[in-house]
Specification:
Length: 311
């Protein structure tokens, strides 16, 4: 009997060793695995509360010296590591073979309580509204700092990008809507019109972060931020030309004149070149700042951990 158990344990250790190697090759952390599995369960129709899996449960599945394995959880892990359906079935069968001598199912550890807010609290309307208001404040801070830097860049979307990572596209778009309302209350109609770019940026950042997982690494999020720069420029340039006659009364006008003097291109084209170039640098800086803040929050009691994926 003891020999059979020892053989089973050795087989399970071999399986876990291979699973560890697979995770290392994919470069995915335990927290990211937990997030991916939770998001997949939600996408499959499970409620957010029931779908949540603690990262400690995931890390425990990789522990050597186990006597049993949860075949369903191992299959979810392999699937979250971007393996195809055939590979998932193969791993499930391998778990079944490795645990044949120990057929009793293993009970998963009780879900850990987060030291800060719980996932349910972080997906509640109150929490999302609080994050949106924080994003609005962060955007406003950037807008006031920009004149100190020559009034060339914008730096007014750090909050939008951060909210997109933390709470999804519609909350991030909501930050833009709130910004529009604030500008209208101040009587700043032109600023409110330009704030439409915040709404579009929030949707793009949020969908990219949630649906395509582009907020999992800095290079991915910077690439997403470059796309935001393109879209916001396509919106801002016509507004500048039509509503302002091509003059922004900012440092951008000097750059426009410099482009006209050096290249001799059409006036409107010069506006587009300047706006896109500045917007690209601006959105990359904004994206990097938002990613850094989100990463810091994730390390502080899980406060910044991703909320269940938005549709």
């Amino acid at each position: 009997m003891g020999g059979t158990s020892d053989t089973s344990a050795a087989t399970i250790d071999a399986l876990i060793t291979d699973l560890r190697a697979l995770r290392a090759a994919k470069g995915v952390s335990y927290r990211d695995l937990a997030t991916r599995i939770t998001d997949r369960r939600i996408a499959d129709g499970t409620s957010p509360a029931a779908a949540r899996v603690p990262h400690t449960t995931i890390s425990d599945a990789f522990r050597l010296g186990r006597r049993r394995l949860n075949a369903g959880l191992i299959a979810e892990i392999v699937r979250a590591l971007d393996e195809d359906a055939a590979a998932v079935d193969a791993w499930r069968a391998r778990v079944a073979a490795a645990t044949a001598a120990e057929p009793a199912p293993e009970l998963e550890p009780a879900p850990e309580l987060e030291p800060a807010t719980t996932p349910a609290a972080r997906s509640s309307p109150g929490w999302v509204l609080l994050v949106m208001l924080a994003g609005l404040l962060l955007n406003s801070t950037g807008k006031f700092v920009n004149p100190l830097l020559g009034d060339v860049f914008f730096f007014d979307m750090v909050g939008t990008a951060l909210v997109a990572i933390l709470a999804g596209p519609w909350a991030a778009a909501g930050v833009g809507v709130l910004f529009i309302v604030v500008e209208l209350l101040k009587g700043q109609v032109i600023a409110a019109v330009f704030a439409v770019t915040m709404v579009s940026a929030g949707v793009i950042w949020g969908l990219g972060a949630r649906r395509f997982r582009l907020a999992e690494t800095l290079p991915r999020f910077l690439a997403l931020s470059a796309l935001v720069a393109v879209v916001t420029s396509l919106i801002a340039v016509p507004i500048t030309v039509i509503m302002l006659g091509g003059a922004t009364d900012r440092g951008l006008d000097g750059l426009r004149d410099a482009v006209l003097a050096v290249t001799g291109v059409d006036h409107d084209l010069a506006i587009g070149i300047v706006n896109f170039t500045v917007s690209l640098v601006d959105k990359l800086a904004v994206g990097a700042a938002a990613f850094a803040i989100a990463t810091l929050l994730r390390r502080v009691d899980g406060v910044g951990r991703r909320v269940p994926a938005a549709p």
